[in-house]
Write a structure and sequence with these properties.
Elements lengths: L3 H15 L4 E6 L21 E7 L2 E6 L4 E5 L4 E6 L9 E7 L2 E7 L5 E5 L2 H6 L14 H8 L6 H6 L9 H11 L12 H20 L40 E5 L2 E5 L7
Antiparallel strand pairs: 1-6, 2-3, 3-4, 4-8, 5-7, 6-7, 9-10
Helix pairs in contact: 1-6, 3-6, 5-6
The structure holds a DNA duplex.
DNA sequence: AGAATAACCCGAACGC
DNA sequence: TGCGTTCGGGTTATTC
């Protein structure tokens, strides 16, 4: 499931492969992937040249030479595959396009991902209500204190809420809380300043490290041809149910928090 | 206002 | 072995 680091990696790979190249043709075979709020059809991208590549939270943004933008949210299993020759669509290929020497396939097994073609990026993202980027210097203890003061929900659930900090998903939320030694069910408003500081610091550490590793690859997720085969080598919480805690050897516990699978150490992350 | 829930999908995991 | 059921994941819409 691509979270911020994976999306950042995919952005970089696509920039490397597509920048300044022109879309000769494009086709979308599963119409629901295009959001109803999309101002333009996928077909309208035909003839445009890739210029800018951005990431906002878990959203990929492609900017074109005429000012239009194509926004893609991969959700759980959206992925791009690049080929140097014309290739038949696979079972879950929903979109294909050709630029110069490259054929690009977009696949999504679950059909959960979404995209839009727009010209006003700011207006589009206003409707998404995204919070600060984790690396934004404006992200501070006082900001989180204000945001969390009436939040009785579990901190894990609040970290998944994209309106405070954007880009954290289920995997890295567990990693961040493990590093912070904070119980995932601790109500957000009860966190001390020190703990909020710890969340900010460890969010940056965890996400930066993951970006450096090229994004964590799990299950069917592959970022894009050329960067497949990377596996989570440094996850200390997610997926480690029943395995010894890397700090104290206690068996890691899995619970549900807000309906989401959550792994933590009962000894290191006390309530 | 915040919080809980359903909906969207379908392969994998699970239960019998 | 085979079949039916449940689960999970991010986000949005809906309801309380």
């Amino acid at each position: 499931m691509p979270e911020l680091p994976e999306v950042e990696t995919i952005k970089n790979v696509l920039e490397h492969n597509l920048k300044n190249k022109t879309i000769e043709w494009i086709r979308l075979d599963y119409a629901p992937l295009l959001e109803s709020k999309s101002e333009y059809k996928i077909q309208d991208l035909s003839g445009l040249t890739f210029k800018g590549f951005q990431r906002r939270g878990k959203y990929l943004i492609f900017n074109f030479d005429n000012g239009m933008s194509w926004v893609v949210h991969l959700r759980m299993e959206g992925k791009f595959h690049l080929y140097k020759e014309e290739t038949n669509p696979a079972k879950h290929t929903h979109l294909m396009f050709k630029v110069d020497d490259t054929y690009v396939h977009y696949l999504d097994t679950r059909k959960f991902s979404r995209m839009a073609v727009i010209k006003d990026l700011d207006a589009y993202f206003k409707t998404k209500n995204l919070g600060y980027e984790p690396f934004d210097e404006a992200l501070s203890v006082s900001f989180l204190k204000e945001r969390f003061k009436n939040r009785k929900r579990a901190i894990k659930s609040v970290l998944l809420d994209q309106s405070h900090i954007t880009g954290i998903g289920n995997i890295y939320a567990d990693e961040i809380l493990f590093r912070c030694k904070i119980h995932p069910e601790k109500p957000a408003f009860t966190l001390t300043d020190k703990q909020l500081e710890s969340i900010i610091d460890n969010t940056i550490i965890v996400l930066k490290k993951a970006i450096e590793e090229g994004g964590t690859t799990i299950r069917s997720y592959t970022s894009s041809l050329g960067v497949t085969g990377l596996f989570q080598v440094s996850l200390k919480a997610y997926g480690r149910e029943g395995l010894p805690c890397t700090e104290c050897q206690t068996s890691m516990t899995r619970i549900k928090v807000g309906g989401r699978s959550t792994v933590f150490c009962e000894k290191c992350q006390k309530e």
